[in-house]
Structures are given as C-alpha cells and as structure tokens.
From TrEMBL:
Family classification: Belongs to the tRNA(Ile)-lysidine synthase family.
Alphabetized PANTHER family for the sequence: TRNA(ILE)-LYSIDINE SYNTHASE-RELATED (PTHR43033:SF1)
General function of this protein: Ligates lysine onto the cytidine present at position 34 of the AUA codon-specific tRNA(Ile) that contains the anticodon CAU, in an ATP-dependent manner. Cytidine is converted to lysidine, thus changing the amino acid specificity of the tRNA from methionine to isoleucine.
Subcellular location: Cytoplasm
Highest rank taxon of the organism: Bacteria
Gene that specifies this protein: tilS
Domain notes for this protein: The N-terminal region contains the highly conserved SGGXDS motif, predicted to be a P-loop motif involved in ATP binding.
Species this protein is from: Pantoea wallisii
Keyword DNA-binding carried by entry: no
UniProt: ATP binding residues: S21, G22, G23, L24, D25, S26
Domain Lysidine-tRNA(Ile) synthetase C-terminal, first and last residues per copy: 358-429
Name under which the protein is recorded: tRNA(Ile)-lysidine synthase
Highest classification ranks of the organism: Bacteria, Pseudomonadati, Pseudomonadota, Gammaproteobacteria, Enterobacterales
Single GO MF annotation: tRNA(Ile)-lysidine synthase activity
Pfam families: ATP_bind_3, TilS, TilS_C
HAMAP family, per the entry: tRNA_Ile_lys_synt
Length: 432
C-alpha cells in the first residue's frame, strides 16, 4: 500500500515523535516513517511508548516497543504514567495522562504523530452521536491541531483499518493486540466488534462517509471560531473573565456559541445545552447580590457584577493563620497561592514593635480606616470599592501585627499599619 497522505502531510526534514503503542496502527505509521527516512536522511523520527501500568502485560508491551525500535534503529523512550480514574472512566483518564506525558516529552520543534485511522474516526463520530453532541463533538478528531507550542498530527486518519492490515501483512510487521480491545463492555469495542462490521457489509463506504461528515462539522466549527473570535476577545478581560450583558441581547444560538468557546478556552469541557441555559437563567439573570455558583467538574462558574468567572474549585482559607517569623525570608502561602516577601526599599508600612508578632490570615471583619482615604468603612464595603469578588476575599493574604490588620499586599494599608517615619517596608505577594 502506498501512503500518499503521509508525504502530503509531513515534511521530509521534519522532526517527529511517534506515539508508539506497539499496536497495528502505530506500528504501520512508524514503519512508514522509517522507510521514508531512508530516502530523506534529514527526517528525524523517534518513538514514545506510554506505560500505563494498567494491564499485567504492560511490561511486555514496552519491551516489544523497545525491541521493534532497536530493530529499526529508531530511538525509543518509555514514559511511565499513573492513571487516576476517580474523576472520569479509566479510558478517558488513561488518554488524558497519556497525552500529558507525550507532550511533556516533546523537544522544541518536534511534532507529535498518533496513528488513529478512518475506522477510529467513524467510531468517534458514532460515540459523539450517542452522547448527543453538537457540531464540535461530531467533528471528532482533527487531522491536525495545535497543543501549546507543538503540533499534533494524525496522518492516517483517511486510511482504513483494512488498508493498515494489508500494509502490515505485505511488510511482515508484527504487532501486539491489547486484550482489552475484545471487551465489548467498552463502548468503542462494542462499535468496533459488533456494529461497524454490519454497517460496512451493507455500505462499504460508511466509514469514509462518516469521516466526511465529521470533517464538514469541523469546518463549520472553524468558521464559527473565526467569525466569533473578535467579539469574544472584546468581551473577555486579561484574566479571562467574560463581560456578559451584551450576550443577553443576542439570540440563544449566538450566546451559546460564544459561551461554549469561552468555556473551552478557559480549560472547561464542552458544556451541554442544558448547562448553557442554566448559566443564562441562574447566573446571568439572577439578582446582583445573589452570588450564584454553578459547579462543572473540577471548575465553578461564578458571577461578580457584570462578569462571569470560570475558576478551578477553590477552598476558603478563612481558617488559616501563619506566623511570619523572619521577615528576611519569604513566607510560603497555602493552596498554591505563592509567597509573600518583604521589600525594605519601599517605606510604606511601619515595622512591628518588640511585642508584635507578624502573621498572615485570610479574613478580616470590622471597621477600618485606610491610609490615604478620608473616613472609615466596613471591610465588606472596602472589598466592594476595590472590586474584589467575594470568593477572592478569603484567599488574599492579609498582614496582621498581633490581632490588628495592617495591610493587604498591593491593595491597601490601614491607618494602623502606615509608617510615620523613614523606617518601614512593604509586603509583596507573588502568586507563582
Ligand atoms: N501506550 C501508548 N503509548 C504510546 N502511544 C499510544 C499508546 N496508546 C495509544 N497510543 C497512540 O494513540 C493512538 C490512539 O490509540 P487508541 O485508539 O488506543 O486511543 P484512544 O484511547 O481511543 O484515544 P484517542 O484515539 O483519543 O487517543 C495510537 O494510534 C497511538 O499512536
């Protein structure tokens, strides 16, 4: 079998890492690259095998991958991962960690190749139909996508499994069969073993036609992406918050299209129609002071004033109190909040007295006078004036001397914390 698709998609002087499971598809892909490299010695190819540790055979698969690569004189790395299937099914969890490991191992300028084929694409489309997906889901797998700084290509997407098998026979390739592929309790295997053969027997071009439908859906989605990109950029601020009032004047279709793109850009999964309706009804239309919060897996959607926020699920740090013993050393904050450190080149806050201990807490109540402002205010009012959303108020490090609030780094200094002489410091909060 000749594979024009490979040479059409790849560069003869490119730098490629093949995700090599040792199964039929990736064995054919790797073999083609090895042959192609003989004609184009500048082509750089290596193999990456992910060891999931899920099957008792995982070690022997890794050994097989290494053996084949040694035979073909291709560098091969085995990447060991741990699959945690608590949040999603085992297949989805394995896929997530697999791609994380593969992309993390890529070198600058290297592109990732995976070997999904036409029948995989057809199965993906049928699975998307089963879930009731919209055009983005029905678009199935793109032949090419950008992932961070790297390209991910699927050069065999238009090649059928039967073609791959003939190629493997012709070149006497050996490959491994994952025993779990026979288990029809998995939806994909059920389609592969029991449904697709029936469809193919009746309509031999079914997979190719389904893949064409997927590509057409992908094209529509891309067009919408392009048409909506400018408007989405105008509505989104640098932190990713979405200014939503204009969405309420739009048709439902346009509002949903913008919300979907905003959510996926923030790292969320594609929301259902029902979820989008709830966002409109329960979050955008609710009373301003209602503090709505919708949970989506590991994320929450919140509203503050006229903006929507898509945030990782975060805990309140109200109960935390840390003692800052040595000002010359940065103080590490809990829950990935970074550090606070002292800057003695700026004289903003007074230094603590002998009997005052510096501590950092994450809550404040009561009435305060701030430096540089006339009159005092309730803490709640101060946060409102500063435009700090309620959920952030319990995650901002506050500097206290004993029981008295002195400052919120970068936001304010209280009258008690202000310095009246030339000695002093300021607290800097670094959130990396
Ligand atoms: N253990 C592995 N090590 C390296 N690459 C792998 C491994 N498993 C799968 N791959 C790569 O991913 C491709 C798709 O494999 P498979 O069809 O089993 O994945 P999947 O779980 O259905 O998910 P997806 O198709 O979305 O990646 C393979 O052709 C191969 O390139």
């Amino acid at each position: 079998m000749s594979l024009p698709s490979l040479t059409a998609q790849l560069q003869p002087d490119g730098c490629y890492a093949v995700a090599f499971s040792g199964g039929l598809d990736s064995t054919v892909l790797l073999h083609q690259l090895v042959c192609w490299q003989q004609q184009h010695p500048q082509l750089r190819v290596r193999a990456l095998h992910v060891h999931h540790g899920l099957s008792p055979n995982a070690d022997s698969w890794a050994e097989h991958a290494l053996r084949i690569c040694q035979q073909w004189q291709i560098p091969c790395a085995v990447l060991r991962v741990q699959v945690d299937s608590r949040d999603s099914g085992i297949e989805a969890a394995a896929r997530t960690v697999r791609y994380q490991a593969l992309f993390a191992d890529l070198q600058p300028g290297e592109q990732l190749l995976t070997a999904q084929h036409l029948d995989d694409q057809c199965e993906t489309l049928l699975l998307a139909l089963k879930r009731g997906s919209g055009p983005a889901g029905l678009a199935s797998m793109p032949a090419q996508r950008q992932y961070g700084a790297h390209q991910h290509l699927r050069p065999l997407l238009s090649v059928s499994r039967q073609q791959l098998e003939s190629y493997a026979m012709q070149h006497q390739l050996s490959w491994i069969e994952d025993e779990s592929n026979a288990d029809v309790r998995y939806d994909r295997n059920f389609l592969r073993q029991q449904i697709l053969p029936l469809l193919q027997a009746r309509w031999p071009h079914f997979s190719a036609a389904a893949a064409r439908s997927a590509a057409l859906c992908g094209e529509q989605e891309q067009l919408l992406d392009e048409l909506l990109a400018e408007q989405l950029a105008q509505l989104t601020d640098q932190q990713g918050a979405l200014h939503f009032p204009p969405l309420l004047a739009m048709s439902e279709a346009r509002r949903h299209a913008l919300l979907r793109r905003w959510i996926t850009r923030q790292g969320g999964a594609m929301p259902s129609r029902e979820a989008l309706r709830r966002i409109t009804d329960e979050v955008m239309h609710c009373r301003e002071d209602a503090q709505p919060c919708l949970r989506f897996g590991a994320f929450v959607l919140r509203r503050y004033r006229e903006q929507l926020f898509w945030l990782p699920h975060q805990t309140s740090l109200r109960q935390h109190a840390l003692v800052w013993h040595t000002l010359s050393q940065p103080l590490s904050l809990p829950d990935g909040l970074g550090t606070v450190q002292a800057d003695f080149t700026t004289c903003a806050m007074r230094l603590p007295a002998e009997d005052e201990q510096i501590n950092v807490r994450f809550q404040a109540h009561g009435y305060y006078h701030l430096q540089g402002r006339a009159g005092g205010r309730e803490m709640k009012k101060l946060w409102q004036e500063l435009g700090v959303p309620p959920w952030q108020r319990e995650r901002i490090p506050l500097i206290y001397y004993n029981q008295t609030l002195m400052a919120a780094p970068g936001l304010f200094i209280t009258r008690e914390g202000a310095t009246r002489d030339t000695a002093g410091w300021q607290a800097i909060w670094s959130q990396q």
